[in-house]
Amino acid sequence: LIEPLVLPLQTFIAGTAGFILIQFNLDITVIGTNLFVGGRIVEVAPHCAGLKMLFTSLYVSLMLLYWSGALQSKRSTILLLSGAVAISVSANILRNTLLTLFHGTGQDAAFEWLHESWGGDLYSACMLGTLVLLLNVIEGKR
Description:
Blueprint: H1 7-22, E1 28-31, E2 34-37, E3 40-43, H2 51-68, H3 74-104, H4 108-115, H5 118-138
Antiparallel strand pairs: 1-2, 2-3
Helix pairs in contact: 1-3, 2-3, 2-5, 3-4, 3-5, 4-5
């Protein structure tokens, strides 16, 4: 339902991933949501744009705020939800950059691990774990 509206996010992620990979002297071309590396193409598809993980991050953040009692604080709520958006988008850019690097350089096992195997689960767990750390920083806990 919402996937057709995600094109700007897809384009941003593809462009940013392309920019990062250019810094490592990779011959990369970005056309819209497609990245071309080493004769291979990687598409930042609507379901790969991280929208589902963005909503998951916001949901987990709200649960953390509720459980910790920090939901009463407007400052904590705004900081954690804003941080969740920044962390989710940044992590997804990193994930798409790595997927493009792996696929474009022929590292198919690494690509499959991060894209289809438990590497994606590890990525998600680490990203959601940073929300707990962020809330601790916001609340002044260590």
